[in-house]
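Students often ask what a holo structure prediction actually looks like on paper. The answer is less mysterious than it sounds. You provide the chain, you provide the ligand, and the output is a string of discrete structure tokens encoding the 3D arrangement of the protein together with LARABZUK.
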Amino acid sequence: MTRVKICGVRSAEMAEAASAAGADAIGFVFYAKSSRAVTAMEAAAVVRETPALVTTVGLFVNATADEVSRILDCCPLDCLQFHGGESAAFCQQFGRPYIKVISMRPEVDIPAELREHSNARAILFDAWRADAPGGTGDTFAWERLPTLERPWILAGGLTADNVGAAIAQLAPPAVDVSGGVESAPGKKDPTRMREFIHAVREADKRKHEDAAA
Ligand SMILES: O=C(O)c1ccccc1NCC(=O)[C@H](O)[C@H](O)COP(=O)(O)O
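The corresponding structure tokens follow.
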């Protein structure tokens, strides 16, 4: 079954709606320039209310170690996600599993990134844009993805309309969505979250049926 991460959750209501829709994980954006940014205290209040089996993920973009540690002091996140140029040594110092993002800029050296982050719990492939490190709603050319024998997550411009094709073509272990399940920047929409996860489950079902045929 394809796992689903909903990124950019800002309130207990959004977390509850994501969980009710069937999300496996929710992400909190600790990047002040984002319309989805939350403070450590805001995220901590949501994490306290999040059902036990939903994984909570904190996103950082070239934050300092002090900033990450201060957030972890008050917000018991399950996992960290790094969207900038962070080294493996930086990502591993917090004693939490981490997801490393590879932004698909034209010149990215994917094998080198994979080697550097060989201890990452998962690799997330996202679209690249010079003026924003993530959550852009842009897709990228999926044929650029490497074949991987380790956990990875597909992100970048996913919606209820294209996630089925992504699963059929690429069989990602997990998908990540933000803008595609919003009604306005930073506002997660319960109906869109349900539609997105329904599309994921339908694609999983088709894959299962095809494999059995
Ligand atoms: O969501 C943001 O605003 C954001 C800002 C800075 C770094 C990362 C950010 N989001 C990270 C995510 O994991 C998004 O879900 C991912 O980039 C996909 O976003 P979208 O294309 O809108 O589905």
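The chain has seven helices and ten strands.
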